[in-house]
Amino acid sequence: MKKTWRLIYNTLFVPNRWTEYAGILTAAKQAGYTFLRLVELKEALDSAAEIPKPFLVLRHDIDSDPGATLKFSQIEVKIGVRATYFFRLKTWNAEVMNHLVAAGHEVGYHFEELASYAKMNHIKTAELLLKRSHAIREQLEQNLVRLRQNREIKSLASHGDFANRRLGLKNSVLAEDPVWRTNNGILYEAYDNDLQVAYQNHISDKPYPQRFFPRSPAECVRDRQNFLWLTHPRWWQNNPGANLREAATQIREQITW
């Protein structure tokens, strides 16, 4: 019963938490944090440049509700910080991205071709899926070409789908080859080891009642730790329509896979 109520709450009754978001960023700014986009962290690491500490990387994965993206940006612009935004194919929105880029944010591709291919072709084992990796990687390349018609893309971030969890295989395996990256103009993938080692602490938002994992970003600020803070629109803005559509899609995919 409790699990059902939490599911309903997290779909229909998520509160708007923009005041909380602004408060944490303001506290970090006042504590002397340097805010870095992921591309800036990557470039600093590649050039062996000194990175001011403590630093905070703001990352947004736009899994659903791209309209809420602008609220994140408005708060960040007001406080004077910049972030990195990753959009899926289904949330790719040129108008929203234009606003983000104009505000100085970074935009990248939240890719999921491995999981999408598995679901579309009813493949349920990692071994069989990896045998199709060449064809799946070609799909990724084709999507990059199409998306680059209206937006420069130098960065990727692997999306975590229910299919990935069942297969025990991440989308990021498609982008591990450095030669492939060079040939396709990719500077980094968000889960690259050098990036994770640099910021050390990965904080992600979570549904009610957990809210954050493994700890609150406010606690990291209090302890002056370097960290990356990953957020998703659905846990910060109430949008039952978008949440219901996303839930329906997942149910349909699980039935038809």
Q: Could you please describe the fold and organization of this structure?
A:
- This protein is α/β, with parallel strands linked by helices and 257 residues long.
- The chain folds into 2 domains: 34-48 and 67-191, no CATH class; 200-257, no CATH class.
- It is built from 13 helices and 9 strands.
- The chain has helices spanning 2-12, 18-30, 38-46, 69-79, 94-102, 113-120, 126-131, 133-147, 162-167, 178-183, 193-199, 217-222, 240-256, and strands at 34-36, 55-62, 84-87, 106-111, 155-158, 188-189, 201-205, 212-213, 227-231.
- Strands 1, 2, 3, 4, 5, 6, 7, 8 and 9 form a 9-stranded mixed sheet that branches.
- β2, α4 and β3 form a beta-alpha-beta unit.
- α2 (18-30) runs parallel beside α4 (69-79).
- It starts with a helix and ends with a helix.
Provide a compact summary of the structure.
This protein has 13 helices and nine strands.
What order do the helices and strands come in, and which of them pair?
Elements lengths: L1 H11 L5 H13 L3 E3 L1 H9 L8 E8 L6 H11 L4 E4 L6 H9 L3 E6 L1 H8 L5 H6 L1 H15 L7 E4 L3 H6 L10 H6 L4 E2 L3 H7 L1 E5 L6 E2 L3 H6 L4 E5 L8 H17 L1
Parallel strand pairs: 1-2, 2-3, 2-9, 3-4, 4-5, 5-6, 7-9
Antiparallel strand pairs: 7-8
Helix pairs in contact: 2-4
State the secondary-structure class: alpha/beta
Number of domains: 2
β-sheet strand percentage: 15-25%
Q: Report the helical percentage.
A: 40-55%
**Helix and strand run:** HHEHEHEHEHHHEHHEHEEHEH
Shape: globular
Total strand segments: 9
Distance between the termini: 28 Å
H/I helix tally: 13
Largest sheet: 9 strands, mixed
Q: What are the low-pLDDT stretches, counting only 5+ consecutive residues below 50?
A: none
Chain-averaged pLDDT: 96
User: What integer value in Å does the Rg equal?
Assistant: 18 Å
